[in-house]
Write a structure and sequence with these properties.
Order of helices and strands: HHHHH
Shape: rod-shaped
Largest sheet: none
Strand content: under 5%
Number of strands: 0
Distance between the termini: 95 Å
Amino acid sequence: MKHYPAEFKADAVALYRSRPGATIKSVAGDLGVNTETLRNWIRAADGRRPGAHSAPPAAAQAGVDDVQVELAAARKRIRELEEERDILRKAARRPGISRQRRAGEPLPVR
């Protein structure tokens, strides 16, 4: 088994992370190391054990932040829609507005 210096491992991981469209396989091929070796270095740099398949904590946290932002936007939109609904309900209770017109039905023919 071949042993690589820690600096080389760190540089390999940094190279992989600096190329967003690159795959582990392509970077490993460019460096002349085994694909699984590079994958283990990346996992070790993320603080995970080599055989783990879970997302790194930083990526998981970023995903949680994205979900929180989306949830806040959805709640804001819900509040806006509820306010619009309440305004329309109050307007519909005003006298002089026929039920057929409120429901969008045609006026009765006499």
